[in-house]
Amino acid sequence: MPLSSGQLEELNLFQRKVYEDEPKDLLQFAANYFNRRLEQQRFFARNQESVALSKGIVLFPSATRNDSVVASGRAGVAGLQSQSQDQLFKASFSETTDPHGTRLHDPAPTATDEAGHAQEDTGFGSGIFKNDFRVNQSTEKNIKKPLDPMAPAEEASGSSPQPSNTPRRSVVAPRPLPMNFNAQRRTSVSGETMKPDNLDNWIPENYAEKSGLQLERLEKAIGHNFLFNKLDAESKRLVINSLEEKVVKNGQEIIKQGDEGDYFYVVEKGTVEFFVGSEKVNSSGPGSSFGELALMYNSPRAATVVATTDCVLWALDRLTFRRILLGSSFKKRVLYDELLKSMPVLRSLTTYDRAKLADALDTEVYQPGQIIIREGDIGENFYFIEVGEAAVSKEGEGIIAHLKKGDYFGEVALLNDLPRQATVKAIKKTRVATLGKSGFQRLLGPAVEVLKLNDPTRVAH
Ligand SMILES: Nc1ncnc2c1ncn2[C@@H]1O[C@@H]2COP(=O)(O)O[C@H]2[C@H]1O
Ligand SMILES: Nc1ncnc2c1ncn2[C@@H]1O[C@@H]2COP(=O)(O)O[C@H]2[C@H]1O
Fold first, then answer.
1. Residue 292 annotated as binding site
2. Is the CB of 274 under 6 A from ligand 2?
3. Distance separating alpha carbons of residues 241 and 293, to the nearest angstrom
4. Which atom, in ligand 2's list, is nearest to the CA of 418?
5. What confidence score (pLDDT) does residue 210 get?
6. 290 contacts 305 by C-beta, under 8 angstroms
7. Alpha carbon of 455 to ligand 2 centroid (Å)
8. Where are the beta strands (DSSP E) in 125-278?
9. How far apart are CA 48 and CA 148, in angstroms?
10. How many CB atoms lie within 10 A of CB 81?
11. Average pLDDT along the chain
């Protein structure tokens, strides 16, 4: 039976950790790693219990209020230290016995760059998911405010905390849910595909069932948008019913560069233009979407967006965006963020450019001795080395170059419309991110000039 996309992505994440940490004791590493994943998911479940409580829903009717809510208050990375007291999060392997666990068990990264990206890839608490596991809320806060498991700590803990003696908000007429309620699935960190027989009852804030006519319009508007095509049916239903219609007049500013992100937009009708400073950088029309960057990276809006005709837009709130789209449709951005930021050849790309590039990448893994590119073949892909080493050789010349993590190859054939000019073979187990020919032509922007300048065969033709 083929693995689901969620299972594949989980394994993919694990593989990345193995490559990065190169553990000597793989089984111990795997045991600790998956225990931690489990703890994180339990933690999310507890967070969602708080969300549900705030809406008057009891997720775990058999647990006492104190048990369940207190558990949510001390779980997460910070709370893992206290896991021995908390049976819900109990791990069968001790963190302290992990010989390789320093990074794996580090708290979520604290260093962030100017765009708000985490500097260290710990696999889970890093990159776009920065701060997600650094939640240390008090019981009151958990009850008071719905928590976004993907929100930064400041936000998740509430911007204007209530004094600790403030009475808890009363929970009106709790609606019991089945015990098999799987609250953590919506968190999307593992990218699980939700199975129709296992749907939970999380209801987005702005959820409103759409009419048949609206659904028809939306199907047309977002039917071809790849972000939505990646969603399973249930996630798509939640997203569609959370979209709010916004009618915008010609000339109206929809987003202002530098502002905080609140909504993600899909264009049903009309056209919009994007400005960075006073420079027009882009335009788009029906079926396209915008406004995701600030929501993904918790950064200020990267551009001003102005309607250039009367427009009909559909807006998705930040929380639903992060809960559903970030972990699935934007998963590649999470996976490739660190790699792309670290590549000198891509230094000229903006956050927006890198995000678009990440969307187009795929991962391939080669064993030592395996040929990645064969001299004389037609070039289809461009490659970035994520992990490993490869050798470049030419017929009659032998090895002419060595490539390592952060290097790229396969550009010569694509730049010059030539057959492959050399053979590239993995020396160690090598993981590469691949970019297809059309992506290469569309998405590298100013980096193409750098590639041309560095073309190793440039003198020859
Ligand atoms: N060249 C561009 N640079 C930055 N943002 C862009 C660009 N083209 C389109 N956009 C969109 O403009 C949006 C402005 O808000 P965000 O930064 O949230 O997300 C941004 C992108 O979705
Ligand atoms: N001296 C070289 N000559 C040709 N290709 C090289 C050389 N050094 C590195 N390479 C890489 O090997 C790749 C083989 O496929 P391409 O010709 O598409 O792109 C080539 C370059 O990325």
1. yes
2. no
3. 22
4. 17
5. 86
6. yes
7. 8
8. 175-176, 244-248, 253-255, 263-269, 272-276
9. 8
10. 11
11. 71
Q: Is 420 annotated as a binding residue?
A: yes
Q: What angle do CA 223, 199, 228 make, to 5 degrees?
A: 15
Does pTM top 0.90 for this prediction?
Answer: no
Of 414, 403, 409, nearest in space to 438 by CA: 414
Which ligand 1 atom is the nearest neighbour of the CA of 295? 18
SS3 call for 247 = strand
Question: 């799987």: which residue's tokens?
Answer: 182
Copy the structure tokens of residue 279: 């420079």
Residue to probe by mutation, ligand 1, list 259, 282, 318, most atoms within 8 Å of CB: 282
Q: Kindly report, residue by residue over 206-253, the tens digit of the pLDDT.
A: 888 888 888 888 888 877 777 788 788 888 888 889 999 999 999 999
- Residues 288 and 397: their CA atoms lie apart, in Å, by 49
Phi–psi pair at 205, nearest 5 degrees: -50, -45
β pairing state of 430-436 and 381-387: antiparallel
| Pocket around ligand 1 at a 6 A CB cut-off | 255, 261, 274, 276, 281-282, 290-294, 301-303, 305, 350, 352
Q: Kindly provide the residue ranges of all beta strands, DSSP E only, lying in 88-233, ordered along the sequence.
A: 175-176
Q: Provide the greatest CA pair distance for the chain.
A: 80
> Which residue did the predictor score with more confidence, 50 or 276?
276
Q: What spacing in Å lies between the alpha carbon of 115 and ligand 1's midpoint?
A: 14
Domain ranges of the chain: 212-324, 343-454
Q: Is the ipTM of this complex over 0.90?
A: yes
Q: Is 280 helix (H, G, I), strand (E, B) or coil?
A: strand
Confidence of residue 83 (pLDDT cuts 50, 70, 90): very low
> Following CA atoms 162, 163, 166, 171 in sequence, which dihedral angle do they give, to the nearest 10 degrees?
30
CATH superfamily of 212-324: Jelly Rolls (2.60.120.10)
HSE-CB for 155 with a 13 A CA cutoff: 16
Q: Distance (Å, rounded) from C-alpha 35 to C-alpha 29?
A: 10
What superfamily would CATH give domain 343-454?
Answer: Jelly Rolls (2.60.120.10)
pLDDT band at 289 (very low <50, low <70, confident <90, very high): very high
- Residue 113 is encoded by which pair of tokens? 């760059």
